[in-house]
Amino acid sequence: MIITSYLRRNLSLLATICIVFAIMIGIPFYLYEIEKEIILYPGGLSIAIVIIYFSFDYIKYKKRYNQIQYYINNGGIDINKIDKQNDIIISKYKQIINLLQKENTKIIDSNKKEQEEIIDYYTMWVHQIKTPIAALNFLVENSEIENKRQLEVELFKIEQYVEMVLSYLRLDSEYNDFVAEKLKIDEIIKTVLKKYSTIFIEKKITLEYEKTDVIIISDKKWLEFCIEQILSNALKYSKNNGKIKIELTENALTIEDRGIGIKKDNLPRIFEKGFTGFNGRRNRKSSGLGLYLTKKALDKLGQAIHISSEINNGTKVEIIFDKRSVVKRVDN
Fold it and tell me: I need a surface site. Which of 28, 50, 284, 292 has the fewest CB within 10 A?
């Protein structure tokens, strides 16, 4: 690749030298009928000089290429250290690159500041909106209005969407708050189940779950968030009077429903940001953020996620624990 590039760069010079040599040697040879032996010596010497010159020039060219490639591979480029020859054209290219780098830095700083302002605004908004939500919850709980249960469910959904916004901001922030500690997965599951008990009751969903103490090293808040998102989806796409099974083993947590399932051609894209798929478009229930955030959070926690599904036969989601994070397993 380097040789090809070098030859293309010097093609006109090589062609010019060949033409000049042909004229200088060919014309005297033709006009004066000089013997071949006399022409061969200066011709061979000239060719040797040209080969030596281009060999050394190619070595310099390759050295400059390797130097630039080194800076690219190591993520830092000091343009002033590249190609120090006193070439006015190269110096002008360096000036252009320096100007572009300065402009790029300004754009990055401006975008970073704007992003921080957006995060600050929405973080403040999330905390402010929690006050009227809490007030509405209090009013609903202490009233005897019709459809009280349904109002509680809808308020709960609003709370979850607000929490998702906050999680989205925290996860994409440079200052996310991951804290590694020993956790009993059972306790986290019980917390999540309690939070979603209203939905279970409203949709009359049967739960199949057996307690098993599995302790892993992870972040409580973010692992709980991931389990919430998976369970929320299982409930969202389960039919009334359906069934959800939660199974905990030493290596994985499985949440399986018997809901409407996911189309096969949608499965490769379910972790994409904003992707709602056929089910989300049909029911207008999905934001396209839940699984995206779940996958992103689990990646940062060092855990894996796998989803299998069939239309009308339900969905099975597995959080696969890294073996190094599992502390012990005690069956009750």
Answer: 284
